[in-house]
Amino acid sequence: MIYISHRLEELSAIADRVTVLRDGQTIETREMSGTTREGLIRLMVGRDLSAVFPKRKVEIGQTVFELKNFGSRIAGIRGINLSVRAGEIVGVAGLVGAGRTELAKTIFGLIEPDDGEILLRDKPIRIGHPSEAIEFGIAYLPEDRRRHGVVLDFPISSNITLASLKKLSSSIGINFGKELEIAAEYTRRLGVKTPTIYNAVSTLSGGNQQKVALSRWLMTQPSVLILDEPTQGIDVGAKAEIHELMMELAENGVAILMISSELPEILGMSDRIAVMNEGRIEEIGPAAEIYHHPSSKYTEKLIALYPKEN
User: Fold this and answer.
1) Could you tell me the pTM of the whole model?
2) Domain map (residue ranges) of the chain
3) What are phi and psi of 126, to 5 degrees?
4) What is residue 267's three-state secondary structure?
5) CATH class, 63-304 region
6) Residues 239, 255 contacting (CB under 8 angstroms)
7) Which of 111, 115, 103 is nearest to 128 (CA)?
């Protein structure tokens, strides 16, 4: 049996031998017994495990985005108090159904809020539609990449520019030459592996589809970036690349709100972590507290949300 997977826990459970591929080439074949997870990642990524979570110290600036007593009965969220500063990555942890995705959708104008307020650089704003969120410099990368993140039948170039058509349009229509130029630039910048930018997004791997979806929002030059499961369902190499891109954005002052179901990602990339449960944020604390105070009430609440294998 030949079993193809990037889920490392599956390989350790069922495989006798493992062959690692990278960039279309065989890197190495070895016996699974005695092969560590760290060793596999090093072969898959071409770098050490630390490269998967390339967290660096970033100078944190002023508060860019804040929610005060924010809520929506339709979304099932209430009493949300949360802030994100320039250069900061705030992780939102919680089980499926805790209201994490609903919170992101409500912020972005996909669900109507009915309580509280949103502040952007200390000024109250109202968001009733995603187009208004984009105008305010807020971008949202949704959880379901194939249904909501990309248009599978569209070419890569059209997907990348879809949220920024105003920048490409004039009274006579869209400047397709400029569109191709910009799409080529972002394809190179994010390392999208494709023969041409004319290819449909459906022809790309999951990791490359995610890079295209992310390119679309980077083109809007957001000051606030909401990432819902940014590395779900992609291989460890693509994860490392997206995490590195997140660090570059944080270093450029972007305020990032990251929702993730992976505890290593929450711990490895966040500056602060908000623990969400039943539509509310129960605890907010620094990620470093996990390491320095592993028996704290905050740490116990966070760890309790995730399976032991994480």
Assistant:
1) 0.81
2) 8-51, 63-304
3) -120, 135
4) helix
5) alpha beta
6) no
7) 111
